[in-house]
Amino acid sequence: MAKQRTYPSDLSDARWALIEPVLSAWRTDRRTQGLDIGRPCEHDLRTIMNAILYIDRTGIPWR
Asked: What angle do CA 37, 44, 40 make, to 5 degrees?
């Protein structure tokens, strides 16, 4: 698999170590509260968080 491009808004390993336990616990809690049907989670939480931070930082302006 090719290495993904990094952006200045991406989380550092130290910051991810602080956030990851909270997000993983949230994901597990949401999975157990539901009917536990459907496909398993296929997206990495760190990738999702990096995307949110990128959008927050840049605003993704229209051309």
From this structure: 15
Using alpha carbons, list the distances in angstroms from residue 3 to 6, 40, 45: 9, 24, 17
Give me the long-range contacts of 13-16 (CB less than 8 A, separation at least 24). Answer: 16/46, 16/49
Sort 46 into a burial class: Cβ within 10 Å, 0-12 / 13-18 / 19+: middle
CA dist., res. 47 & res. 49, Å (int): 5
pTM: 0.76
Are 47 and 5 in contact by the 8 Å Cβ rule? The answer is: no
Q: pLDDT tens across 2-46, in order? A: 677 788 889 999 999 999 999 999 888 888 887 667 777 788 999
